[in-house]
Amino acid sequence: MPKGMTKRRPQTLAKLLDAALEAFAENGFGGTRIEDVCERAGYTRGAFYSNFASKEELFFALFDRHAERVLERFERQAAALGTGPLTVQDIAAGLADFDQDERTWYLVTTEFTLSAIRDPGAAQRLAEHDARLRVEAVRLLGELLTRAGMRTRDGVELESLVRMLIAVREGALAQSYVEPGVLPPGSLERLFLPALLGAVTEAV
């Protein structure tokens, strides 16, 4: 990112990010040019390069913005559960909740992940961003399990559990987005996440 900040820069950044999200979702990361993003946002290439060094850097800015919003949503959901004790079913229900923006982000991040698997440098950067998000997810899940009077069983790391929960969500979403009329988002998660959490946790 370049040095310096102007009053209009946050607005410019937001418009570029919104435009990139739309373009990546419609045309894919590989099929989107920087010019396409600029045209959607109403800015020149100069404005783009004043904020991002590359299209990949733009993606990671989108990733961090999305991660922040996801964590905020989970924080709100946790707060909505009140201050009393929780059950595994309560936690699973929160994990199975999705908003309407999830499909757009799924399209964007899935394609980028595939391209990153072919590019070790991009894969490393993606892993670093994933790791930062996972740290917060581990913290939140740990707090919820504590409220439920539960802990992970011996041999089950909380981070590994978070990885598995992410895998379940993403795999289930893939099936839901292919057959939305048959399998609405959250259906498999609501059915199986309580059993998964119950199998790998125990009372304190």
From TrEMBL:
DNA-binding residue intervals: 33-52
Keyword field contains Transcription: yes
Gene3D superfamilies xref list: Tetracycline Repressor, domain 2
Transmembrane segments: none
Keyword tags: DNA-binding, Repressor, Transcription, Transcription regulation
Coiled-coil positions: none
Tree of life domain: Bacteria
HTH tetR-type domain mapped to chain residues: 10-70
InterPro entries: BetI_C (IPR039538), Homeodomain-like_sf (IPR009057), HTH-type_TetR-like_transc_reg (IPR050109), HTH_TetR (IPR001647), Tet_transcr_reg_TetR-rel_C_sf (IPR036271)
PANTHER family: HTH-TYPE TRANSCRIPTIONAL REGULATOR RUTR, TRANSCRIPTIONAL REGULATORY PROTEIN
Record-given protein name: TetR/AcrR family transcriptional regulator
Organism the protein comes from: Catenulispora pinistramenti
